[in-house]
Specification:
With 223 residues, the protein is α+β, with helices and mostly antiparallel strands. The chain contains six helices and nine strands; from the N terminus they run αββββαβαββαββαα. The radius of gyration is 18 Å and the shape is globular. It holds the Pfam family Aldolase_II.
Length: 223
């Protein structure tokens, strides 16, 4: 089947995102995967691909049931995880990023959840759950991650890594970068002592302030 222009663009965008994440140290070698959805087409990195040098040819396009539509390489072994997230969040998830980022993975080897130490974590939904350990590429892992993602745009995978989703590919990438920063923050704070966790009241105050002030949204200067 010949590739459509839309599929070609989507494959290029996914390849660009994979290279960006690898340059930031979140994707190492062939470990991790990235996908993006446009309608009923999902572009996802192929299995065994060196993500730091990923090209559009290293990205495969599949249907929601996993049928290959474009590309010559088999999709990642975590295909079921990505497809499950899209099925659960049809109106919210346009991209999914799975990394083996060092600090996120370290936290996922120790904690049952990443508590809210910094208000920016609320952009991901609050406390980040750690999905129970399961062998990579299994239905058990995919199900655990989908549960951990309920009401969140990020989850940690016990002794494995992290997953983020977004309404755009850029948003999913930015969430992965933010999650890694938050995990690094927790690591550094824990080395100094017992971290102070923001209370539910403090978190609610942040949400109210963000709404009132349009936090994180560019706007023209007054005057």
């Amino acid at each position: 089947m010949s590739a459509s222009p839309a599929s070609a663009r989507l494959r290029e965008e996914v390849a660009d995102a994979a290279r960006r994440l690898a340059a930031a140290g979140l994707l190492i070698g062939t470990a991790g995967n990235v996908s993006a959805r446009a309608g009923d087409r999902i572009a996802i990195t192929a299995t065994g691909v060196a993500l730091g040098s990923c090209t559009a040819a290293d990205v495969t396009v599949v249907a929601p049931d996993g049928t290959v539509l474009d590309g010559t390489l088999a999709p990642t072994s975590e295909l079921s995880l990505h497809l499950g997230v899209y099925a659960d969040r049809p109106d919210q998830a346009a991209a999914v990023v799975h990394t083996h980022a060092p600090f996120a993975t370290a936290v996922a080897c120790v904690l049952d959840a990443l508590p809210v130490l910094h208000y920016q974590q609320l952009a991901l939904g609050g406390e980040i759950r750690v999905a129970p350990y399961a062998t990579f590429g299994t239905a058990e892992l995919a199900a655990g991650v989908r549960t951990a993602l309920e009401g969140r745009s990020a989850a940690l995978l016990a002794n494995h890594g992290s997953v983020t989703l977004g309404g755009t590919l850029d948003a999913a990438v930015e969430s992965a970068l933010l999650l890694e920063w938050l995990c690094q923050l927790h690591h550094r704070a824990s080395a100094l002592g017992t971290p102070r966790v923001l209370t539910e009241e403090q978190q609610a105050d942040v949400v109210r302030a963000a709404i009132e002030r349009g936090y994180g949204i560019p706007r023209k200067a007054s005057g």
